[in-house]
Every structure is written in structure tokens, then in C-alpha cells.
Amino acid sequence: MSHKIAVFDTRLLPEAKDKLQTLTAEPVTFPTTRCEGEQDFIRRTADADIVLVGPWDKVTSSYLDACPSIRYVGLCGNTTATIDLDVLAERNITFSNVTRYGDEPTAEFIFMQLTRLTRGIGQYQWKPEQHELMGKAIGIIGLGALGKAIAELALAYKMNVSYYSLHRKPAWEGRGLRFRELAELLRSIEIAVISSPTNMQVLSKQSFSLLRPGSILVQASSGTVFDGFAFRDWIAKEGNYAIFDKAAGADNYQAYKGLSRVLFADVIAGDTQETLERLGQKVIANLIEYLRKDEAQA
């Protein structure tokens, strides 16, 4: 059986595209732009039975109603915030995503930005004097794969590392991390790093009131993860700084990039050449596994 594959992620490298085309006799079109809303998403899908979507594409019941031929959804990314997994399961549509392909480069980028800020290399300097990261109190909110990659570097920099997570991580506590409840963590740190799941709001107005004056807030996770009004009030106070990259989303980029003491990079921190190579390899491996099982059941 020759499958029709619709691709929506614009980041796949040429070698991944070439490999994908070998998996079907049907021509595969690779996009240069993202879909402009659901109707464009539906139009581009047409009668494809396999779709490879980006983290920004919303797979909903209405989309699947309009595209009944879909049997496999492959997410070219990790977070499933835009994917209705319950609906996919109800319709017996196979789903896969990709993990552990961009956590380390994201952490690397964060520490580059922290070093620039604390040393005053660039538009801003955290304090009147240049400071080192060694010995500074950093708190990581969310100790999943990304949080762990950040913790690795924080330990390497010899920082005092605390974390908050829904589930404690004894192995990491054995390596020197200290578990604190969220309120206690916010009161005790100088640098707060949010690495929670996409669009999981972890900081409220009350949370911002607990942060020390002159703190640094880093958003490592994707989407909207705190109260935007409370953040604006907090960042308006002299001495507070924030670090973002475009994984936070286009809306947040437009909302915060022009604020004083905000470093908002116009790039996605985790998107390196090596990251995209790993992404393509894992997307293809997931699809090959699906095709193998589909052929066995035919």
C-alpha cells in the first residue's frame, strides 16, 4: 500500500525529506510556511492518511472530522499541548511524538544568556558589578527532561540548585539538588527557571510577589506559563530581569520583547543543526515503526 504523507513542520532538513520520500510512491510536498488557520490545515491535508505536524499545529476533533482518511499523526516535537490525544484514541488513530532531541542545547542557550546578563555583555547588566554564576541560588520549576538538562549545567557551574516538581527526584537530590515547595523555592532563589510542560501556568500574581527584588526569571518551557499581568507588574520594578526565547510563542514575543530588562531572543533556543538532525531521524524512525506494524496487520 502506498501511503499519502502530508508534512507540516517547516524545520525538516534535506536528508530527512529525502528519506521520507522513499517511504511512499506518492509525491510528498514539503512546506515553506506554516498553516494559516484550520481551513488551510485541512486543505493541505486533503486525503492524506499520514500527517507529520509541527508543535504549533492543532489536531482537534473538527480537523479530524474534515480529514477522515488520517490514520497516523506524527508530531515533530515533544509537547502534546496542541494535540487532542483522547480524540485520536477514540478514532483509533496512531500517534507518536519525539523526545530528548533539544533539551541540552536549550540549557546551553539559557546559560549563555545568564552569563551575558550577569557579566554585562550586551544591553543589560544584572547588578552594578560583574558577577559569576558560581554560588548563586537557582531554582528550577519542573524537573522533566529539560529541567534535568538545566540542572546538569547549574551543577557544573557550582550553583546552589533547588527544584520544585510534582514528584520528588531522590537521585537528583543525591547529586546536590534541594527539593523545596514552590513558595519556599521562590523566596529563596536569585534565578528562577521555568521548565514546566507547555502552557502549564505555574506562576500566579501571588508567586511573583514571593520573588526577591532583583531576581532573574527564565522561561525555558513553551507557551504561556505565568500570569501575564502579574509579570508586567513585576518586570516594571527596577532590578528585575527576564530571559525568553521564541519557544514562548509569537504572542508572548510581541507582548514582552519591547519591555525594559527583558532579553527575548528572536530564535528558538533548542533549534541547532544537530537538534534538527536528531529531530528528523526520530520522526522517521517513528513513522517506519508505524508502517512496519501497519504492514504486518494488513
CATH level 3 topology of the largest domain: Rossmann fold
Overall form: elongated
The overall number of domains is: 2
Structural class comes to alpha/beta
User: In order across it, which strands form the biggest sheet?
Assistant: 7-6-5-8-9-10-11
User: What is the first-to-last residue Cα distance?
Assistant: 9 Å
CATH superfamily (homologous) name of the largest domain? NAD(P)-binding Rossmann-like Domain
Low-pLDDT segments, ≥5 res: none
User: What pattern of helices and strands is seen along the backbone?
Assistant: EHHEHEHEHEHEHEHEHEHEHEH
> How many individual β-strands?
11
How many helices? The count is: 12
Largest sheet: 7 strands, parallel
Name of the CATH first level of the largest domain: Alpha Beta
